[in-house]
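Hi R.,

Here's the chain you asked about this morning:
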Amino acid sequence: MTIEAGQVAPDFTLYDTDKKKVSLHDLKGQNVVLLFFPLAFTGVCTKELCNVRDNIALYNNANATVLGISVDSLYTLNKFKSEQGLNFTLLSDFNKTASSAYNVLYDVFPSFEMQGVSKRAVFIIDKEGVIRYSEVCAVPSDLPNFNAIQATLADLK
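And the predicted structure, written out as tokens:
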């Protein structure tokens, strides 16, 4: 089932790079940007997340909490976050519960025939827990539409 704008966001609980549980329901009352990405340390994923890092003020000004989510282990994500100087939370969806709930898992990732890798996708969730923006990139090398993301966040201020 495709997750679209207007739907209630599926809840999840995942571990962050500090080994703490983060639950979406605990963020109610805040705007949330979920950034699903295939794999840490890959070129397009690094470019995407560094773009968010470099423009974090835009997200902060919209009172939005940014959560990067991949199926990498929390240890891999911790190293990636540290090396790239990422200034937002990364969550490990190693068991693929959030990626499944948001229907953003590849059956077979185009590179190297890996199974169970997250697609590149963005969901913006408002303070009431309703999805206001949904984008699933057609191919892993596509970046999300950052202009549309910022326009949606501006509307949620």
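The CA atoms of residues 53 and 85 lie 8 Å apart.

Let me know if you need anything else.
M.
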